[in-house]
Specification:
The protein is α/β, with parallel strands linked by helices. It has 7 helices and 12 strands. Helix 6 links the parallel strand 11 and strand 12. The chain starts with a strand and ends with a helix.
């Protein structure tokens, strides 16, 4: 049993990332079918790289919540969340809290054992953070924070930028926040092992990027849809989100 490692440029067809590399050294191009047999030395080298990368991930993922983290949200945070219809139960279920020192709403992500993997803070006073709205601690690229009903009957997933959008979309269908707008090929590979249909839902300023990444995702899913709307999903109510999903899935 071999594990996929990375994508490389293909020497035959010239594609930038169609050549897949596995840990036993064999390579195969998803575009033209170019194939390289496995090599024992390369297998050892890939194993060493995997171990080193894993150790780096563990170091990056060693994060702690702000020292003043609390579940008691101030009025400004409650009012902002109420604008998007986030319920008290959803606040509790998603462990959403507050840091007064950073004036940030905190979205933490834990694994099944309760270990903190990462968190993202949404600032309500960007003057304290040099104009930056979001602050992320931990390796979000390695975190698959999927919300919603994950029954075996559901084989579709939606990717959105932020946590609040994710909570709202997950009322209808499994959804995962990107904690940004970057979507790596490794994420497609991982999600493609669990889901058959992918919907990438970003707002208008990410349109070109979303379409390009959607083309890449087609290699790993039976069906890929890209939805570009004028506003983030969190800006729409439940009925509007349902209508958007009906048009696609």
């Amino acid at each position: 049993m071999t594990d996929f490692v990375r994508h490389e440029p293909c020497p035959r067809c010239g594609s930038k990332d169609n050549l897949g590399v596995w840990d036993d050294g064999h390579k195969w191009c998803f575009g033209c079918g170019y194939y390289v047999q496995r090599n024992g030395l390369e297998q050892v080298q890939e194993l060493e790289r995997k171990i080193n990368n894993k150790n780096k991930e563990l170091k990056r993922n060693h994060v702690t919540l702000p020292s003043d983290f609390t579940y008691n949200l101030p009025c400004i945070a409650k009012s902002w969340l109420n604008n998007y219809g986030i319920t008290k139960k959803e606040l509790i279920d998603n462990h959403i809290g507050w840091s007064e020192n950073d004036t940030q709403l905190i979205y933490p992500c834990f694994d099944d054992n309760g270990t903190l993997l990462m968190y993202q803070g949404r600032s309500f006073d960007t003057r304290l953070h040099h104009g930056i709205r979001f602050k992320t601690q931990g390796a979000c690229e390695c975190v698959y924070h999927i919300l919603g009903n994950l029954s075996n009957k559901c084989d579709s997933i939606v990717l959105v930028e932020d946590m609040v959008s994710c909570i709202k979309v997950a009322r209808q269908i499994p959804c995962m926040p990107l904690f940004g707008s970057t979507i790596s090929t490794e994420r497609f590979i991982h999600l493609g092992e669990r889901f058959k249909t992918l919907l990438i839902w970003l707002d208008l300023d990410k349109a070109n990027y979303a379409v390009k990444r959607g083309r890449v995702a087609q290699s790993y899913f039976d069906d890929v849809c890209v939805r570009i709307t004028e506003k983030d999903p969190k800006e729409y109510n439940d009925k509007e989100i349902q209508e958007w999903l009906k048009l696609i899935l």
